[in-house]
Each structure stands twice: as structure tokens, then as C-alpha cells.
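Hi there,

I know you've been waiting on this one. I reran it after we fixed the sequence typo, so this is the corrected version. Both the input and the resulting structure follow.
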Amino acid sequence: MKCLAPLWVFALLVPTLGLATTAPAKPEPTTAAELRQSLTELLTEHHIPGASYAVFDRQGTVLSGVIGLADNDTRVPVTDGTLFRIGSITKTVTAIAIMQLIEQGHFGLQTPVSDLLPEAPIRNPFDATDPVRVIHLLTHTAGFDDTHAKAFFSPVERRGRHLESSLQHPEPLAVRWRPGMHESYSNPGYVLLGAILEAHYQKPWDEVVSERVLGPLGITRVAALSSQAAQGDHAEGHSGVDMHRTPVFFEQTQADGALWCTATDLARLGRFVLTDGASAPGVLRPESVRAMKQPQSTVGTRGGLAYGAGLGLHHRIVSGALWQGHSGGVLGARASMHFHVEQGMGYVLLLNSENAMRQLEEPLAAFISHQTQWKPPAPAHHPIAGDVDGWYRLVNPRISLLSLPTYLLDASHVKAQADTLTIEPFLPGFGYQAMLKHHGDGRLADVDYGDVVNGIVVRDGGGAAVGLEMGGDYLQRTSMAAALLPLASVLLSFVLLLSTPFGRRKSLRNRWVRRLPSLALLSLVLGIVCAANLELTLLGHMNWQTVGVWAASVLFPALGVAGLVLSVRTWREEPAAVARWRCLLGSAAVVCLSTWLATFQLLSFALWRW
């Protein structure tokens, strides 16, 4: 699927999901030497200084290798002991520690989080009937927002103190829909899981997972703090075609993405999950590990969809096959740890650059498939009922800051024809679009990923189609008017506003009738310029960019209201009918646009407070 709403603000925190590439196919590697050569060429092509990788099966590590430089500036090479940042793969470690407590009977997956953390600043309008439970944190289905701007980084490196961080930055913990309905990736949810571990053990999170998870798994080359990693052999982060070094900024918390590790050590984690815990007896019972791999807690999974977030794990489609594990993305680094259950093998790939990930995973997946001689089963496509035709809107954006563009742009028309379901947005090139194949029983496969089922038609108790769940996105059925009128009102308002500054200069007696909406337009343009110059590291601070965005969000509606009032008051005094109508409609357009901004809490918007 392609969701084309502007996600640039938080792109660096998104696990590397990527879309299928359209580049000419390269020969698939069949030997360890060919695999290394393929990865080396891709590193050069995508301007990535260095990498570390490993392939594992149920018995152990099959092969491993390192390529390139740990630091492009000093030319220090990557070694077998080089620590790379693994980002959100850390969540799998946190989930294992939580599952241990569940096994021991201290609480269950259905335990409300408020029972374990009474001080947790969760704001849940559904709490009386649907509290946020432990399972919702593990599967990203609590309805929380993702990390807000001011909570990205800390001026000093923090250890533990997860509950304190949640209390200091409670904004993302507002439940946006009934818990257990939709998936929406949320780092703050795993911060609460870290707080649960610290509250139970009365120790910092890193001590808990070192003693209870990493040590028993035999993972020894690991660091939980950047300051620890910096004392030894570690990979610096890089970005851009010039491979400039990316500073390591301190994170607010650890449980959601702080670990550094080597590829061969991380393969031990992948092997543990692949073997249902058999590679490290005593860490978790087999049924607990199998539960971790089971997608659950969304309307789609309850309807039979076997794709989505498990307990600290997630599905991923690579080379037309369904893999499971976790990926990670932080400033200057990308990481992937995935396994294929049927093939009984998996891979780890660690990069010290933000530039690419999926392109380098493809040869690893192809190499494994060659070793196992595994072939995907032939797809069985079935006609799909036409009752799914209609308009749908994406309702579970990961970032609430993007709720307005998501609401306006991600309303698409769905059309069934034979065994194909086509999703097309109102504006071509903008919004949610996909082509899906029906595999029967409402199960859908996005052709961009091959023939792997990753979606389902959601039906109500009466059998009527009410939504589509696709790869974690949920498209809810709506009417044509509800889908198109909001965007139409915005587009018309922009046209009217853009026409306001034009016309004969002396056609109006009171020139402020035109000046006010024109100044509103200017403030909007300046706000967009400031937003376009924002960088991730600047979001949580007061600077000319964030102050400019705030000033625009204040001036724009104020000038619009003032212009509308003035146009009405001077209506009979202005003899030029075209000019007065143009200015009236221009000011009304500003008020209309401001109403949309107000609806999504974007008036007087200060990123340093968000």
C-alpha cells in the first residue's frame, strides 16, 4: 500500500518498512561469497559506510560478515565486535522480560496498566469499559500517539526513570480510539512497559533485561547506553550521499530503542524466537514465545487476519515471503532482525546509515530461500464481492500531528472487479492507494509486496463491509460526501485566498479589506517555509523555525477574522462589486481553513510545547 500523507517530520523514528523496489532485478546470491559481494555493491550504491550481518537457523549462526567502515571520517573498519545501534529491536527484549512476569503470575496480558502503574498519566475516555491493558502496550493497540517533539531527546543521558519520563511527557498517552481496535506504532507505550519492569524489580530497565534476558540468551556484546558503546568498538551514525556523521543524541528512555549490539549476538535473539525458546531453555516457556508471534488485538486479527503486531514482534514482507521479527531506525542507523518460520532460518542486518534497508535485506532473504529451496505456495485468487465498493478513510495515523493531512488526503475510493480490489484517492498521487488481490474469505494481498496476505475486509455482525485493515492501516467506510467535502472545502478555500491579492489597487476605498486576507496568505506561506526548514533535532526547541510556525498559526486566523469583520462592516461603502466579493470570500476562506486547523488543535501551535 502507499500512504502518501507527508510523514517527513517523524520519518527517522519509523521502523524501516519500505515499499517493494522497481529497480531491475539483480542475480540472487547463492553462496556466502556472492552474498557478501551483493551486499558490498549495495552499500556503495546507497552510500552506506558499513554493515554487519548474520544468517542463522535453529541450530545456530550459519554465517556472518562485516563490510566497510565503522566511521567514515576516521576510516576505522567494521569488525566482528563492532556495536551497532539496533533501535526498536530493543522492544523485543523488553517484551520478553514482560512475558516472564506474566508467566510467573504477577499479572496477565489483560491486566489494566493502571493496576500496575497507578501514576501513569493515561487519558482514556473509554476507561470505564475498555481500559488500556498490558496487551495493548505490547501490540501498539492502546490508541496512543507516538513520541512528541519535546520528548525526542534528553540533554543528558538517562538511565531508567521510565515512569518519570512518562510523567514529564504525558501528551502522547491520550487514547484516540477504543483500545484494542487499531494498531498505531507508539514508542511511549513501550516506555510504560519499561516503567512496569522497573516498578516490579526496583532496578533500572537495563539491569533487568541484562540479568533476565540478554545474559541468559548469551548476548554479551551489548550496550544499553551510548556512553557505554562509545568506550569501545562501535559504529558511528551517518546520513546522506556524502556519508556525513550523525551525532548520537541522548534518548529520553531506553526500553523502546536504546540497545547497541553485534550482528552475531543479535542472531541469538532471533534464534530464540524462531525456536520457540528452545535455544535458551528457561527464559520463556514455548507457549509464551508462540504467543509472542501471534498477531492479535485489532479488529482485523479478530476477523482472521494472520498479519500484524504480535507481542514485541511484527510481520514483514521481504522477497515475496512473510517474515517475522523486528526492525529499528534511529538517527544514523538502521537494523533488521527477521526469521521465516517455514524455512527455519533468519537474518540480522545492521547498518550505520539511514540511507537504505530493504534493498539490502532482499539478497539476504534470497540467499536463505536458495539454501532451503523454499518456494512460496501458488496463490489462489477468488472473486471479491462488490459490496465492498465505496469510500473509505484512514483513521489510525501514527502521528496525531498529521491527523489533518491524513483526514483530508487519505480518503479513497474502493472498487472491486473480479479478484482485484483497487484503492484510489480523490487526488491522484496524494492519499492512500493500492491494488489488492483477494485470496478468499476477505483476505487481501497488496501486489506491491507479492502474494502475501497482509489485509482483510472487516465486516460487522450483519456481514456488511465496514472497513479494510491493511498492513496495520485501518480504512473505515464513509460516505462520498464525508470523503470529498472536507478536501473540496480546503481546495476551494485556497483558490479563493490566492485570488484575493489580485485586482486594481484603487478599486477599494478601504484597502485593508484586501490587505488583511493578503497578509493572512503571507503568514501562511512564511509558516510553511519555517516548517519546511525544520529538522528532527530542532522540533522540541524554541528557534526561528518553530517560532515562525507558531506565529503563523496565530496570525493566520486572527487576520482572517479581522478581514471578514471588516468586509462585512464596509460592504455598502465599497462600490466595486467584484473586488469586495473577492476580498470577502478570501477572508471567509481564511476562516474556513482556520476552522480546520482548530478542529485538529493546530491553532497557536508551539512545537516546543507539543
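Quick highlight: The chain is about 35% helix and 20% strand.

Best,
R. S.
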